Structures are given as structure tokens and as C-alpha cells.
Amino acid sequence: MGDNLHQHLQNTARKLSYFSLALDESNDVHDSAQLLIFIRGMNDNFEVTEELAALQSIKGTTTGEDIYEKFSQTVKDLELDWAKLSSVTTDGAPSMVGPKKGVIARINLEMDKLNHSHPIAIHCLIHQQALCSKSLKWDSVMKIVIRCVNFIRTNALNHRQFQEFLSELNVAYEDVLYYTKVRWLSRGRVLRHFYDLFPQITAFMLSKNKEVPELNDAEWKWHLAFLTDVTELLNSFNVQLRGKGKLICDMQSHVKAFEVKLGLLIKQVKEENFCHLPLTQNLLAEKPLIAFPKEVCVDSLEKLQKEFQFRFKELHLHEQDIQLFRNPFSIDIENVDSIYQMELAELQNCDSLKDTFKSNNLPNFYASLSSETYPNIRNHALKMSTIFGSTYVCEQTFSRMKNFKCPTRSRLTDEHLHHLLRLAVTNMEPDIDYLISQKQAHSSH
């Protein structure tokens, strides 16, 4: 069935007008390097194909050259046309984006040889968001939270007693959570659990004669509330960026919206207005601080803002192309490339197409445009529709890989693993009737 799906993907790939690829590399349970490559393509009717292109096992080193060889092999196996490559999305590792020996650099060299334009290089927006979040360290809060959680959970007796204590009080949570750096939402969830269980944790630590002075410090608790509020906003933003089939214009809108929110928060915190930070606002209403330490919070938010501006500046370089794709009716004709201007003049003055735009999603709207009247705008939309804004599909599939190739199934071959993953994530249906017809039934049956 896996081979049949691969053949089906090959046939579909030949009909694509443009395609983009997302790639990420991780290790399996045997420490074998596995490279996942996903393809998203559009045909002339704006019908989308998003599938696992390949799982490539890399033996030995995982340099940019090694990964590029597997990338090139996948393009060859699927008989893809390099001229139709719209974009490449990676996790931003040096082997992927290195200026000379990275995968993107080698792809650009290949495109130069073939006299094709370079594909758009996208650094996974979810990874970018996670890296920005790391600038919000607040070790003075996190160290205490982690110390208390570890005290409760690493000792079996303490853990049982704490769970029983919570069950007697009938609170919202049954336990505290461990903090895991590699999990994108971990810090926000740990802090929220800790804050909501703060009275119970304080009482339990006191009953165990475990001294934690910070738990009785009003300013420290205010810092805890502030950090919990901000990390919850970051987690909400992270969730907005997740999901399969997300268009790059929608993801960029979420990025720009969060940057506006950050600017608003900085201004309001300077004015001691916490209307968008509910835990902080409620805590200050209960226990007003004599010396309000807003400078620390403003400084943290400004660092986060600078990090966002730095991390997402490459995405904003493509803002005009994204804006043209998102809403061709609102863009200024004089600011776009000359090949689109005459078509935009026609489009922006067509009332029936304005109504179509309002009542349809973007792919359906562009599919309704005449290829004779609007060839360049349709072509642009085909390219932009294929772009992966993140490597979320790769991360999700790696989770499946860990389940398939676990310690009890560690001898699973790379070929079988590839077929299992393809069957697990595909949107296509294997041709069961054809496969059955290729099998000869036993004469006695």
C-alpha cells in the first residue's frame, strides 16, 4: 500500500503548477538520523496536495551536503521540476540555512545552474516564536517553581501525599506538571498550574518543613502572576501558528497581530494598566504593592519585542508579495511589480469579483479568476498557496515515528517505517482493488 501511494503521489506531482517543500531532521530510537520531507503543491485548478514526500535515512554525518543529497534524491524520485519549486521551509539549523554549505545555499546554486529564480526560504515560524520566548527568562521565578515541583514529584511519598491533599480540597487540578524545555507550551502550562495551586503548594511545603521564603514574598508572587500572564499570551500565539494546511498570509497576520499586542502591553504596563494581564491585575487589586516594580516587567517586554522584530524581519521582507496574495483589492497598484499592475486595475474595478472574494476562501477565489485575463495574478497565487509557514507537519510526524519505532519495535527497517508513516499521514487512498488484482489466489480457495 505504501508503494501504491508513492506511485499515486508521483502521478499527482506531474500535474502540479507549483510546489513547496518542508524538511526537518531528527533521530529515532536507534539514533539513526531520519529526514522528513513534506510536499505541498497546487494544480491549475487550485486543488491542493499536501503529502509526505519522503522519509530519508541518513547514515553517518548530517551536514548540509548530506541533507541536500537526500533532498535532491527526493525531487528526482518524484520527478519534480525544479522550475516549479516555490519555497523551502526548514527549522533554521546551521546545516539547513548555512550561507555557504547549508541546504538552502546548495538549492540556490542548483537553481542558478538551471537559470531558475531562487525559492523563498522560510525559517519555521513556530520555531521562531519558541526562540523569542526564550528571551523571557525570569530565572528568579522559574528556579523556585521548578524547585517546588521537583520536591513534590521526585519523591514518591511526597507526590502521593500532595495528590491526596489536592483531592481532599477538591481543586481544579489533580497534580503539578514537570517543566520540559523542548515542549513549546510547557512553561506556560507549568506556571498556570503552579499559580492556581499556589495556596495548596505553600501549605504543603510548610507541612513538610521545606522553607521557600519566596512563597511568602508579595513581590515574587506578583512576578509569578506577570510571567504566567505573558507566557499564556505566548502559548495562545503558538497555538494559532499550528495546524496543517495553514496559508502563509494567515500566519503572517498572527505574527503582526502579536507584535501589535506587545507594543500595546508595553505602553499599558508603563501606565500601570494591566487590563490584558488578568492574574496580575487581580493580584494587585488584592494586595497593592507599595513600590511597584514596573521597570523589570517593561524591560522584559521590550526585550521580547526586540527579539520578535529581529526574528521575523525576514518574513516581513516578503510582506508585499503576501499582501498581494491576501487581498489584491486593498493593495496599492503603484507599489506592486509592473507585471501585476494592469491586471490589478482590471480586478479592483470588477464588482462581481469583489463579491466572490468576500464569499470564498482564497484558493476558491483565485480558481474563479480567468487565466486569460489574470494570468500573472493567478500564477502568483499558485506560488503563495503552496508555502509552508512552519515545519509543524514534520514535528507531528516525528511524534508518530517515535510511536511506531519504539524500544519494543526498534528493529523496524527504514523502508517499513517509511511506509507506515506514509499510510498514517496521507490524505490519499491506496487502490485496494488494484493491489488485490495483482495477487494470485490459491487454487484450493
Briefly say what this structure is.
By secondary structure, this protein is of the alpha/beta class. The chain has helices at 2-13, 64-77, 94-97, 103-113, 125-133, 139-153, 156-169, 186-196, 198-207, 218-241, 248-270, 278-286, 294-311, 313-317, 319-326, 338-348, 351-359, 362-367, 375-385, 392-404, 414-425, 432-437, and strands spanning 18-27, 33-42, 48-58, 85-90, 120-123.
Number of helices: 22
Into which percentage range does the β-strand content fall?
A: 5-15%
Radius of gyration: 26 Å
- The helix/strand class is alpha/beta
Number of strands: 5
Termini separation: 23 Å
Helix content: 55-70%
Instruction: Give the uncertain stretches in residue-range form.
Output: none
Question: What is the H-and-E element order?
Answer: HEEEHEHHEHHHHHHHHHHHHHHHHHH
Q: Strand order, biggest sheet?
A: 3-2-1-4-5
**Overall pLDDT score:** 89
What does it look like?
By secondary structure, this protein is of the alpha/beta class. Helix content is 57%, strand content 9%. The protein has helices at residues 2-13, 64-77, 94-97, 103-113, 125-133, 139-153, 156-169, 186-196, 198-207, 218-241, 248-270, 278-286, 294-311, 313-317, 319-326, 338-348, 351-359, 362-367, 375-385, 392-404, 414-425, 432-437, and strands spanning 18-27, 33-42, 48-58, 85-90, 120-123. Helix 1 (2-13) crosses helix 21 and helix 11 (248-270) crosses helix 15 (319-326). The model has no long low-confidence stretch (mean pLDDT 89).
